Amino acid sequence: MKTQTSIFITLLAIVAVFASCTKDQLKKDHKIDYSLEYIQDEIVLEDLMHDLFLEIEESNLWLDGFKNDRDRSDCRVITIEPEERGVFPKTITIDFGTGCEIKEGLSKKGKIIIEMTAAPYSDEWTKTIRFERYSVNDKSFEGGKNISFNIEGRRGLPTWEIVSRIKIKWDEESSVQQSMQRTRMQTAGFETPRRPMDDSFVMTGTTTGRNRKGQGYATTITEPLFMSKDCRWIKKGAVEFKVRGESDAVLDYGDGTCDDLATFTKDGKTKEIHLRKK
């Protein structure tokens, strides 16, 4: 997915063209390009949240004893207490130590600690997540996350309700705060848990928070985000952005094609943007 596991919008061309402009001139004369800054931050944040979700969900395999089948180069250390199968609740600790380069090209440190109420194959369970000096590429996490799972309605589709309040220290001078409420529904692949590449999902929901510039913001998924594990980017869907001091904007991920293209629309102008692989 355009989020699944690091997403960054490439702005080097914009910087090269307008390097001699002041910030005020850039806002006045090229407002749509300047406004990409908060979209960039939000997409990187979305990617960090999705990567965290994948780390948490992979713990289901560890509960079933598959952790020994992981790539030997994987530097994560996983502990489960109590170790006996079928005994719940359990505490799962993912320890990246003082520095762990994982195969997705991310550098992680610290611990993710997961409290789980029931087995992952149960019809319902809850995970409570907290962090201990956890960081991704030197972006450090504070706060927590709750994930509640159930088999939804007559269609019997696996559904995750996700609620989080997280603060990320972006760098030495700035941080981002985000409160999230999301619903994630699996639409394919749930009958083949050992073949994750055939999994696909839709996501709906909202976020509120404060960006690196101290501006309050809110996002709403106006068209459900469609993603699958066989694609590096979100395939389809749209997100509306409301940022204090800015006019509303929409990020559209496209028509379902697996590619790195999206469109950003603001003040009646639309710009096509490229997003890096996860």
Global mean pLDDT:
80
Strand proportion, as a percent range, falls in over 45%
Q: What coarse outline follows from CA principal-axis ratios?
A: globular
Characterize the largest beta sheet: strand count, sense, and whether it forms a barrel: 14 strands, antiparallel
Number of helices, counting only DSSP H or I runs of 4 residues or more? 3
- End-to-end span in angstroms? 7 Å
> What is the string of helix and strand elements?
HHHEEEEEEEEEEEEEE
| E-strand count | 14
The unreliable regions are: 1-34
Structural class per helix/strand content? alpha+beta
> Which value, in Å, is the CA radius of gyration?
19 Å
> How much helix is in the residues?
10-25%
How would you describe this structure to a colleague?
With 278 residues, the protein is of the alpha+beta class. The chain has a domain at 12-65 and 75-213. Helix content is 17%, strand content 46%. It contains 3 helices and 14 strands. Strands 1, 2, 3, 4, 5, 6, 7, 8, 9, 10, 11, 12, 13 and 14 form a 14-stranded antiparallel sheet that branches. Strand 1 (77-81) and strand 2 (90-95) form a beta hairpin. It starts with 11 loop residues before the first helix and ends with a strand. Residues 1-34 have low confidence and may be disordered.
Chain-wise SSE layout:
Blueprint: H1 12-18, H2 23-29, H3 31-63, E1 77-81, E2 90-95, E3 100-101, E4 107-116, E5 124-136, E6 139-152, E7 157-169, E8 175-188, E9 200-210, E10 216-228, E11 236-243, E12 249-255, E13 261-266, E14 269-274
Antiparallel strand pairs: 1-2, 2-4, 3-4, 4-5, 5-6, 6-7, 7-8, 8-9, 9-10, 10-11, 11-12, 12-13, 13-14
Helix pairs in contact: 2-3
